[in-house]
Design a protein that fits this description.
Number of helices: 11
Oligomer: single chain
Strand content: 15-25%
CATH class of one domain: Alpha Beta
CATH topology of one domain: TIM Barrel
Number of strands: 12
Low-confidence stretches: 1-9
Mean pLDDT: 92
Largest sheet: 7 strands, mixed
Strand order of the largest sheet: 6-7-8-9-10-11-12
CATH architecture of one domain: Alpha-Beta Barrel
Helix content: 25-40%
Structural class: alpha/beta
Shape: globular
Order of helices and strands: HEEEEEEEHHEHEHEHHEHEHHH
Length: about 375
Amino acid sequence: MSVDTGPTAVDVRITTRAELALHGVAMDAPVRRPDGAGPSDDGHFLIGHGLVDGAGAALPRNPDSPYSVRDGRVWLGDESGHLTDTGLTLTAVRRPRFYDLTTADGVPYEHIARLHGADVLATTVVQTCVRYAEADRCRFCTIEESLRSGATVAAKTPAQLAEVAEAAVRLDGVRQMVMTTGTTTGPDRGARALVRSVRAVLEAVPGLPVQVQCEPPGDLAWIRALYDAGATAVGIHVESLDDEVRRRWMPGKSTVPLAEYEAAWDEAVRVFGPNRVSTYLLVGLGEDPDELVAGAGGLIDRGVYPFVVPFRPMSGTLAARDGAGAPSAEVLRYVTEGVAAKLRAAGMRGADQRAGCAACGACSVLRTAGG
């Protein structure tokens, strides 16, 4: 891995955004996601600078961070107490009004779906996973911890999701929705529940862009079923393209060979179209940075958007229990810039997916880097 010298103003912004993603900010956030299936437990903010204004940013809320916010601007402090203006602005996303509502049977809307960023509604349709036994669990995942804490329900019905989506769009201006699921025992691996849920939501809110996320279904016909139900985009998340890393970090998921992911990505691109398919790639699991960038390039050639996200050990994960740490800001910037350059060369933007993690971009530094 080589390191550039003579950083430009854009490089400085990318470095600062990478450091914020890793170290967070000394600021509370009323909209946050304390646990779940994803790689972060961040607060949700809107970040602005010369290149991107009002973009979503999912950042750790860290009282010990060197970054703080005064009058809406982000300041970097040093050991002497001196503050430097980073040139970035940051505002917390307001608590949505739909959080104040409950279903007819008394379930809080917030337990069914949550706001991510300023305008993304997200839900885990099935909050249990067949791979959650410790021997099989992804080391970065806490999908069942939010269920154990009483913050959600095990399975959201299509009717509940439709009710909450309609309210979120009407009351809070939600413009897209993300539906993920824990892996189920059937060959669809969770796609069946997603199909029913997408249909119900789109009956209630016609035209709402919806991304679905699941493991590669054993029967690839489920990919067509997700598209026919009305899904706009699909995420099939591998997290790493290195089999040794996969076995160490995702012992259960790694039993699904990469060849199955490749077949599912290719079928999804055929059905949904190029740049309507994405996969998470986590930076910081031990994969060689150059190999990670090269692997992302192969995904781009397939028409798959590689959503590069820094690993941060969430409370309650096996990784946090075992003392795993996040990557350095230098490594995160290096990988992000390399992948963003390949995305620009291919004419692929996450925003063009219209729904999903790549379209939102808050958990990644890619948008700041031009990807």
